[in-house]
From TrEMBL:
Protein name, as recorded: Elongation factor 4
A Pfam family hit: LepA_C
PROSITE patterns noted in UniProt: G_TR_2
Chief location: membrane
Gene: lepA
Annotated Gene Ontology cellular component terms: plasma membrane
EC top class, as a word: hydrolase
EC number: 3.6.5.n1
Species assigned in the record: Seonamhaeicola aphaedonensis
Amino acid sequence: MKNIRNFCIIAHIDHGKSTLADRLLDYTGSVTEREKQDQLLDSMDLERERGITIKSHAIQMDYEYNGEKYVLNLIDTPGHVDFSYEVSRSIAACEGALLIVDAAQSIQAQTISNLYLALENDLEIIPVLNKIDLPSANPEEVTDDIVDLLGCDPDEVIHASGKTGLGIDNVLAAVIERIPAPKGSPNEPLQALIFDSVYNPFRGVETYFRVINGSIKKGQLIKFIATGKTYDADEVGTLKLKQLPKNEIKAGDVGYLITGIKDAREVKVGDTITDAKNPTRNAISGFEDVKPMVFAGIYPVDTEDYEELRASMEKLQLNDASLIFTPESSAALGFGFRCGFLGMLHMEIIQERLEREFDMTVITTVPNVSYHAYNKKNPDDVIVVNNPSDLPDPSTLDHVEEPYIKATIITKADFVGNVMSLCIDKRGMITNQTYLTPERVELNFDMPLAEIVFDFYDRLKTVSKGYASFDYHPIGMKTSKLVRVDILLNAQPVDALSALVHADNAQNIGKKMCEKLKELIPRQQFDIPIQAAIGAKIISRETIKALRKDVTAKCYGGDISRKRKLLEKQKKGKKRMRQVGNVEIPQQAFMAVLKLN
Ligand code: GTP
């Protein structure tokens, strides 16, 4: 055990985490060129295309240092705030972390939020100044920033380049010398932390774990504490680039487990694995059931595909336990599902997977957060509202709460004013402002999560000319003055377009919604009035003017290739349109409320 090191890499996005990890694998001879290619082919398409790590993985390296053999377990962490619970569990499985900072970009919001997570888990932090090969690198200044942040000695900051491989030997030496060996005892009852799982359609769910105490053996009857279920450990092993089956994984080490589980929901990240016959008395602390943060309706474009959509979602859920869904019906869209996601990225991933892997064409409605409503009569009973149209009659309600987050933003001093006005516009309350250097400022805000869902990133980018980084974590529910803005098309309410918004902004949002929908809904043979309403009160109105006859006539003339193009276009258009009453609504219209500027 004294020669094992468990560590992770934490960094702001694009500071070079994956590149550095690759260099570590190369340097320790853990991967051949051929294997590297295979590994790339194995990982999810989406992950590669987006260039970000969606799921965390672990990999074991063997390394000889000063004549001794070491086992280094690198536990990768997802790079997106949607998966922050998984990040926290991966961090909890380690004794140390490489904190990578881009020598040109310096400390950014995710650097800080991940650092705090690592410090909460008492990890040894090894600062790495990365990309020092860049001509724009600013090693002295950025080292000062790191020293200020960590209170460390400048000599402790390792200069490296994942691109050229410079400093990789020093990184490995620091991992061995500075990160403590795991504690724990192989003789105690088994206690292993699940930090990740991966669905494998052939072998069932692969569970990744870190053994804290005891050991886990092939054939052992084991138990997951949170779910209370028992399984036979059909296969255990270590995670090299490929899985390497072993008879036993002992305290301090990291490995994988296969039990034939076919449903991802049975394997919960953060759960404790123990021996079924001689269980530990203590579950590892920090387990939480992950809760979806963002909800949206998913409907088949063709109502006949409802059952197929259900089957697809069930299959998806088997390999992504964080997706939840319940059937719902909408007066406008018919039968579909209300789905819960970890965040907006997760929602996009599910939507894309439905299309790519299951060949479904779906309409997704405006995402919303989960609200808590309290009835006047029973103010102690919380009514969870995951769909704005489920909000009870406001006159019966005592109050409504919405989820809040703490936002960390790092920007240049020049943009502080802009960022502040944006955050205040988004109902944010500033809680802290720190000058990291004379040019760089960290700002903290408490803000409603709903405001982040609605076009926050884009606007932050605009107001800061791209010089702002942003991260957040949830801080609980707060009372808000919320009202529902309904949209009527052709005098018919379209429930799927309703949104819950703050009362003070309702008028403005209603007006902008009408304007936006006027842009997005194609003209038809008749006038279409668009109205926004709060209860029975109409707050705004626009009209989509009828098409003039000769316009269509002209379209259908012309040569054959143009006609074909037009038909193609229509076919594509149809894929993403829903007929509501006698109005055709395109997919973008359901997202209109997200793009109201
Ligand atoms: P993931 O979030 O896991 O995808 O990793 P990451 O975003 O932290 O960074 P990634 O390793 O994908 O690198 C981001 C970009 O920086 C890529 O274009 C890399 O080629 C580049 N890069 C990474 N390390 C270095 C370095 O040491 N020097 C230079 N010049 N570029 C680098």
